[in-house]
């Protein structure tokens, strides 16, 4: 069985191991909204300034988490594009065949409608 030299995203030196993804994936937007709702429904906080400060801190954390998620998605897309480009340069005829096959399937699907 012949092995192929398909590059993996981690094969690129600029894309070193990233352990931050596990923490980013653990925080969902629903949990951010739940935290904000819990702060708003907290009857123990009677000081308006303290409540504003807590909400401000939570919104800042949410903004930072969303920026991190956006950066992670951007990095993943860039990594995927680099890997695809490397694959196409390594195997141009296979890439042409894949595009031809995809175009044929699209033509069959559109032709039936």
How would you summarize this macromolecular structure in one to three sentences?
With 113 residues, the protein is an all-alpha fold. The chain is elongated. The chain has helices at 21-26, 29-41, 48-90, 92-112.
β-strand percent reads: under 5%
**What's the shape?**
elongated
C-alpha termini separation: 42 Å
Kindly state the number of beta strands: 0
Biggest sheet statistics: none
The amount of helix comes to: over 70%
Overall pLDDT: 77
List keywords for this structure.
113 residues, mainly alpha, elongated
Describe the structure.
This protein has 113 residues and is mostly helical. The two termini are 42 Å apart. Helix content is 73%, strand content 0%. It has helices at 21-26, 29-41, 48-90, 92-112. It is elongated. The mean pLDDT is 77.
